[in-house]
Structure formats: structure tokens, C-alpha cells
Amino acid sequence: MNIDNDVLRLRELAEQVREIADLPIQQTNRRLWEAVNDLRMIRPVLHVRDAPLYTLKYEDELTTQIEDPFLQRLEMDLLLRLYEWKHMRVDRVIEPTIKCPCVITDTGFGISATTDSTTTVAAAEGEYNSSKHFEPQILTADDLALIKTPVVTYDEAATMTNFERMQEIFAGILEVKLEGKSNFHVVPWDDLLSWMGITEGLMNFALEPELMHQAVTIYIDAAIARARQYEALGILSSNNGFVNIGNNGIGYTTQLPPPTASGIGARLQDIWGENSDQVLTAVSPDMSEEFAFPYERRYSDLFGLHSYGCCERLDHKVYGLRANFPNLRKISMSPFADLEAGMEKIGSDFVVCFKPNSNYLTGSDWSLEPLKQELIKIMALARKYNSNVEIDMKTIITLNGEPQRLWAWCDMAAEIIANY
To answer: How far, in Å, CA of 77 to CA of 49, rounded?
Structure first.
């Protein structure tokens, strides 16, 4: 495909996206998300996120035709939006924009997890799961020097070259917005224990508590310095939009400033922050309050609103979250939580980010019935405790080669929610 055909292909897809973006339902869905995040829910909202492309492939709906890597990424963005609107619409919002990523270099923390073994288990063609053993790299206080403060650089010239190219391609169809950094994957103990060794690190909470306090202090200092660099460089983007907030749902709210006209230049206090510590799911609330929450609070204080949790159990830590995070707005309730216990403690004060059990979508003998009962239960609890609820289907590893399973869940969930 030559460059003229590439542009024609992108414009044809963009016109389809724009036609959908102009539908009145987009504003309706946006208001539903705003109501939940503003703690004045109209009804629970539904979202599907983080489904790997290999689980969604159906016929040629996600097959790219463009070879140029930059243009192919734009093509996939458009194809995916059309696919999701057709098959997994729920409360999705299609905006009349397309994002031009800023060209950014981030050196990271200077250390990454190393493994000495990986076991790969094939689930279906192109699908996989793996288990890893993390090799300890931080054994003593001296080893903490391995953790570096990230250095962030912004190539404005390269970014603007891409931006101008996209403006030409999508002129008169979609507005091109610059996209900087809008979410920071700040998971202190998930990272630290992958560098210390999972078993060794967990033991050190009891055996070497001072080492653990030193480690998390250095980590949070580095994370804060990294976030402030993005702000100083003017490459923060608002996540007050159809943007995933950390490991939870969408960010629309009237309680934060709207995105800037260009798409970048937001302040930290204008956006959502997020934390999670899945690896601490099995430790006591007291240990989280000693080793996690006070440090994560220093980070969360940078932001206007905050979201906490992913797939860890948090129903027994709600009181600690309340006490430590004054700007907290979203709390994850994973399939492993005692849902009623958590929602009773949360009440109407925060958003309950419920994660259905995606394992029910796997295997040769599967049924929607357990997932239906999950939704019926959370609807009843939402009424009982006057909760603000988002339902985020995520952590999809396999659909056994049948994306129709996820489509069916979306249809079933939308029907149940409509009757709330």
C-alpha cells in the first residue's frame, strides 16, 4: 500500500469513527461516568479494558493493511474503536479526536526484574501465560543504590513533526490532540519485591523492617521526582476523559479541570493519581498501614483525585485507605474481596470499582450464569449501601479463541444494568 492509499485508508476509518462520535449517546455515556465519579450515580457504569488483541481477533476486523509503523498504530487505534463500539459498546465513549503521542524518553528506576526461569503454558493459538521466579538483586541497604531517580526528556521537534503529519491526514474529520503522560504506574511493593525476590522480600517485612522502610522511601522519592519532571516539561495530559485511571475505570469528572486545548500542559493537581500493591494482598491491614499507605500518601498528595487498587483484596483495608488518603475517590473491589464487607465500609463515600471474575470466560465448558449472578449481587448491594459503582471487566488472559464470549458478557451486563 503506497502513502496515498495509506492516507485514504486512515481517512475512511476516521470518518466512520467521527460518525459514531457525533451520536448523542456519547454525551449521555459521558454524563453517566461523571455522575459515578462525582459520587452522584445515576446508574452503575460498565467498561471493558485491557483485553489483549489476541483474545479479540475476529475475522479481519482488527487486521491492519498499512505497513508504515507509525501509520499502522493510528490504523489500529481506529480499528479498535470501531470494533469495541460494534461488539463491546457498554458505556464506552467515542470522542471526535485522535491522539499524537509525545516523543518521550524515560530512563526508569535503573533496575528491572530478572528471572531465572519462565514456564509458558499455551492456552490457544497466540495465547500464553507464564510463571516467573524473581532473582533477588537488593539484599542489603547498600544495594538500594541500584534504585535511580528516573530522568525524563522530551523531543518536541520529533513530536511536532508527527503532529503536523497527523493534522494533514485527519483534517476536517478528527481533531488531533497531543498525548503526554496521564497515568503513572506507581506500585511500590510490586516493583520492590520483584527486585528483592518475592519470598525474600516478604520475609524482610518481619526480619529487616528498617531496610524495607528505606527501600520504599527511596522508591517514592524517585516516583515523585519523575512525576514532577513531566509536569515541569509541560507533557502531562489530563485523564479527565475516556482514559483508564490506573487499574480501575474511566476518568470523566466535573471535579477536576477539563483537558487543555492542546492535550498537554496539565498540572499534577488537575489529574487523577493512582496506586496499587497487589503483592501485599495477603498481608495484614496493619502491615499495609506501616509499610505502604503512609508512603503512597506522599505520592497521592500530588494529585487532585486518587484511585487505589487493582486485583488485590481491599475489603479489609478500607478503613486504612480512608485514614491515609484524603483525596481518595476510587477503591477497587476485586473478585477476591468480600464484596458486601467492602461496600458496607465504603457506602456512598467512594467509587466501588468492581472487577468481575474473568476466569468464568475461559475453559471449554463455560457459562454466563456465574457472571450474571455476580452482577445481580452487586446491583443489590449498590442499592443497599447507596454505592457509586463502576464495573470493570479486565484481566482477560484467554477467551479460548472465542471473542464472542466477551461480547455476550457485554450484552448481558448492559441488560442487567439497564434495569437498575
So the answer is: 14
Lookup: cell for 57:
481477533
Spatial separation of the C-alpha atoms in residues 263 and 99, rounded to whole Å: 8
Q: Are 62 and 56 in contact (CB under 8 A)?
A: yes
pTM, two decimal places:
0.94
Q: Which residues have C-beta within 8 Å of that of residue 189, sequence separation ≥ 6? A: 201, 216, 277, 279, 280, 291, 292
pLDDT in tens, 289-336: 999 999 999 999 999 999 999 989 999 999 999 999 999 999 999 998
Lowest mean pLDDT among 61-65, 118-122, 191-195, 331-335: 118-122
Other C-beta atoms closer than 10 Å to the C-beta of 183 total 18
DSSP state of 365: S
Beta bridge partners of 154: 104
For 250, the 3-state DSSP assignment is strand
Burial class (CB in 10 A: 0-12, 13-18, 19+), 54: middle
CA 220 to chain centroid, in Å, comes to 20
Contact 109, 147 (CB under 8 A): yes
CA distance linking residue 102 with residue 155, whole number of Å: 8
